[in-house]
Amino acid sequence: MNWRGFLSRVLLVGVSFPLLGAAIFVLPQLHHLAFNVIVMAASVLGALETAALFRAHKIPGANILAPILAASIPAGAYLEISGLLAPGWLGIWIPTAICILLVRSVFFRGTRTLRTVLSFAAASLFIFIYPGFFLSWIVRISSLPDPSLCILYFLCLIFGNDMSAYFAGSLWGSSSRLNLAVSPQKSIVGFAAGLAGSLLIVGLFYLLAPGFPPYGPAFNIMLGLCTGAMAILGDLLESGLKRSAGVKDSGGVIPGRGGMLDSVDSMLFSAPLFYYFFVLIGR
Prior knowledge:
Radius of gyration: 19 Å
Shape: globular
Strand content: under 5%
Largest sheet: none
Number of strands: 0
Distance between the termini: 43 Å
Number of helices: 11
């Protein structure tokens, strides 16, 4: 058991949760502007780290323009939910931003040859989409009914999954490791514990916040399992990206944890699913 790594995660949660809690419950004004600014900042840092992964693989990209444009996706989502932009404007802006990046890739390459256009364009588009597009759904969670509880519920499901998977996998996972190419240390025990951790959070919310969400036990159990499964998938994807780039962490912005991507990877696929569970299934 890597106790140092586990304690680092516990310390990170102990420090970050009070700060996030203050942003969510003490500063909910203007459609949770304070919390959503944190999400936008995470999008920029995550995009910069994604660009660094491409650089580690010697693949060029729009390392400044793409992260700036990436922040515009959660920013646009915030403007939509706050009523400052009509719904659907992002459907115009995202193709426009993609066109900007493609034009940048083809026509503004300086003295570089056109032989690198394909890799430059592909890297730039990926930096733009990942993780900003997926994090924008966390912004949209703040537009749901009982937004403060919804945001807290989502974050607790993710952290409960992550902590349970890491703890159980480190202690008892050696005999059930899957030897996946993207993450050889991942185990069946860790995956099962992660899902169990998400279900534990479901149970705690059922006891501590009765009536939230008002859709019954079956909804909450399915939400917990599906969110946990998507959290695991997001973590595996980022592990594959790091392994491809030959790095252990995506960055060093968070002591004891690594980069921003290392902290939000589990949220990327789970945030859209969580949002649409409430919008489509819960209505």
